[in-house]
Amino acid sequence: MEAAETLIGRSPDADIVLTHNGVSRNHAKIVRNSYGYALLDLNSTNGTYVNGEQVKEHLLRPGDRIQLGNEGIELLFQTHEGEEVSPTSLDLGVDEDEELATKTLGMWGGEAAEKTLHSLSSVLPSEGSPYPEPPLAAEGSPGSELEKISHILDFHCYFEKTFSSEKTFRQILKSALEISGAERGFILSKHNNDFHYALGLNGKGGLLPQSDFQTSQSVVGRVAEEGRAVFMTEGLSEEFAQRKSILAMNLRAVACLPLEALSSESEQPEVLGILYLDSTRRMHALTGLDEKILTKLAEEAGAVLDKLEMIKGLEERKTIEAEMAVAEETQRSLLPQSLPNLENFKIRTFSQPTRHVGGDFYDFLSLPSGELVGVLADVSGKGISAALLASLLQGILSTEFQSTKQPAEVMNRANKLVHQRSQSSRFVTLFLFLLDRNGSGQFVGAGHNPAYLFRAATGNIEELISRGMILGMFDFASYDSSPFRLDKGDVLVIYSDGLTEAQNQQEEMFGEECLREIIRTEAPAGIEALETRILSAVGEFTHGKAQSDDITFLLVQKCN
């Protein structure tokens, strides 16, 4: 799965198409980022299960068994890296260290713990290590190497139980302060490419409010730009010693580390936050080992921040999916449950929304005087706002035709109401017609592509062009209707631009000329054959490529 999102379902637009009856059209999706993969149920009818338990969202691990519905289809999730690290294979340099690590792993559990311990095996000193025991500070002295490393394990174990950014930041700072013996520590989080205060603690774990937030901007800027840690714990380097912020705060020691994660869009790591530590007194002199432990803590913290971002993204997606479900239901409710059963006319319709729920809809009204009103509309935008505007327009048309059967009057009134009640960025294109029992009628358009009228007697195709402005964009817009007539065998074809602008793999458009040719050859056989050929031709042309706009069309044929 190389894409950022993989859709699973019965829909032909899905990335993984499963035709089992228990699988919904858009059943679930797998979301990928630099941290891993997450499974998200899309409000499926029969549910999504992982290892036998129903889930709404789940962070996938190798070997997870995904079941779509309560029976039938089952998928096995695996990664390219299938190896697991065994605790007995860890070499921590000395026997007691290995025993401690194995006990810690037994309490913590999980593949992530094994990987973390394995990476730490290269950090711990063995016999003859060049790292000396650091001198003790007067207060807040750090403990032994294993105690320092336990902070990383404690931090990772802690995160397994919480998904709160603030609590995670607090644990990062607590561990870093105890490892380093610094007086103050801050977490800076990234927002719009700048780094801002997220949390601060003093050396005793007390909260430092944002009003106390002061850092060496020169050091922070260097770390943010280069993505490399800066350690100055035994005196400041000449490069930074005379900087105004350092002089103003009387700093004698600074440690600043990037909290990074691999970006899904780039091979270069992205700095998600910054860990900043400083002291006005001489901080515990960090050895090379201490720096490695702090660096490892920063790496783990960066991975956690990435995971938190992923969870936040899942929550946002969950909200969006819920809104989209409402929009889909609203859009479905706009379409008539059944088509008018008329003595002199046959009607066929088709509408296929995109994944992003567009605003296409069609409707029919039977007037008390016997006329048939038909409309096909394309509302700008996507989602719930488009669906609600479509619902508003449908209600306006139904209400206005109760007081008049003149399409132009209805359109003029509808334009003013839509303009008053919708956002300025929302508008509608539509084609509306009125037909009496004999086939005489009127049509009016609002920024919509022309309809096609196939003449059975001659085989010619006429364009029904209306030059009315887009509905709802300007309150002063005015609309006029034009007459037309359907004789026996004639076919009226109304469509949204999603049909003619459907694209193939080379991003070429289906086009109006192709549609006209299909009408010319298939309309003589009736609208059932015409509908079938339009759908097959579009399917052959697009060859499975997902479309960015709804495809909707409406066919009316005069029978007698």
Structural description of this entry:
- With 560 residues, the protein is of the alpha+beta class.
- It folds into three domains: 5-82, Sandwich (Tumour Suppressor Smad4); 142-311, GAF domain (Beta-Lactamase, 2-Layer Sandwich); 335-558, PPM-type phosphatase domain (Phosphatase 2c, domain 1).
- It contains 13 helices and 24 strands.
- The chain has helices at 95-108, 111-120, 145-159, 165-180, 217-226, 238-241, 244-249, 288-334, 383-400, 407-421, 497-500, 512-522, 527-542; strands at 5-9, 16-17, 28-32, 37-41, 48-50, 53-55, 57-59, 65-68, 74-76, 184-191, 194-202, 230-232, 253-262, 269-279, 345-352, 359-366, 372-379, 428-435, 440-446, 451-454, 461-464, 482-485, 491-495, 551-558.
- Strand 3 (28-32) and strand 4 form a beta hairpin.
- The chain starts with a strand and ends with a strand.
- The model is unreliable at 82-142 (pLDDT under 50).
CATH topology of the largest domain: Phosphatase 2c, domain 1
Mean pLDDT: 78
What is the CATH architecture annotation of the largest domain?
4-Layer Sandwich
CATH class of the largest domain: Alpha Beta
Main sheet characteristics: 5 strands, mixed
- Domains counted in the coordinates: how many? 3
Rough outline: elongated
Secondary-structure-based class equals alpha+beta
Helix fraction by DSSP (H/I, runs of at least 4): 25-40%
Number of strands: 24
Count the DSSP helices: 13
- Describe the strand arrangement of the main beta sheet, using strand numbers: 2-1-3-4-7
Distance between the termini: 56 Å
Catalogue the unreliable spans: 82-142
Q: How much beta, percentage-wise?
A: 15-25%
CATH superfamily of the largest domain: PPM-type phosphatase domain
- From the alpha carbons, calculate the radius of gyration and give it in angstroms: 33 Å
